[in-house]
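Researcher: Structure for this, please.
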Amino acid sequence: MSNAQLLQEALQLNPQERYIVVESLLKSLDIPDESIDTVLADEAENRLKNYRDNKVQTIPFEEIFD
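Model: Predicted structure, token format:
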């Protein structure tokens, strides 16, 4: 079944059934991906290390929002 066919069938459902389908699909996307979490944690640690070693230029908070 193609995506278009699946969508067409889903649109024939009543609102409550469509809600259940949409909610289930959204929940299926909300599963943490440990590989992404690892990459983000490594990046955060590298940025903190560079900050502490004065290897990056910082910008005052007030200047960012001027």
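Researcher: Any notable elements?
Model: The chain has one domain: 3-64. Residues 15 and 21 are 10 Å apart (CA to CA).
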